[in-house]
Amino acid sequence: MFRFVLIVSAKTLSKIFSMATATFFGRVPSKDDSKVSLVGLISLYWIFIAVGVAVPELAQMIIPFAPENETIVFWINLALFIFLPITAGAITCRVENRKHEKISIKQLLMGYPYAFLIGVLALCLIIIVPLIRFPQIINLRSLKHFAIMIKKDKYDLVFEKVQELLTENEVEVYPVDPPKYLWVPFLALIWVQEHIFKKKMAKNMKIVRGELEGEKIVVILHSTDISIIGPEKQVMVVMGILARG
Fold it and tell me: Mean pLDDT of all residues in the chain?
């Protein structure tokens, strides 16, 4: 039963992180998906453990197979609160870009900010992503992606080209700033990924809204992905325009 719950939890969190990736980054290729998913699972659970430390009455609900002794439960909860982030930090030491490095105390302790940020963001995404997708589902909106790889310093040029291509094909478009509920988690996730993977990541996300055949469409441009939201027919037309261009 424990193994079943663990597998289901890991798959569910992996799905949430996939949706988060599509929402905030587009698609980011990685050889470390399983490690990042495990860190995410630990981080999400750590948030509940932190709640259990703050409100001891809830601790017994959070810890599986907990004894009925409140003192023992408190100490188990406190131990998990201390050591889960360190475990997360240890896992990040084994990602592809760090696997030849010696595990340092600093990197282990970085598990604390990682656990806090990823845990809080995962909780937010459980709320935000369904809220974003719900109107799309109700209005029969489709979300499609296709991968690109924009060269350094060419992002603004590509953004202008996207608008130009759509305008030339009778799609009325106008750029808009990303809403804060997308932009703030986007920057936070970038900070975490830059530190985990020891690699600079482009902080690029721009949005174009438009209208095609009386239907509204949204195009989100990342450095590695174009996401298009709208009715199925209009989304496929826009995909065709951008693919040809």
Answer: 80
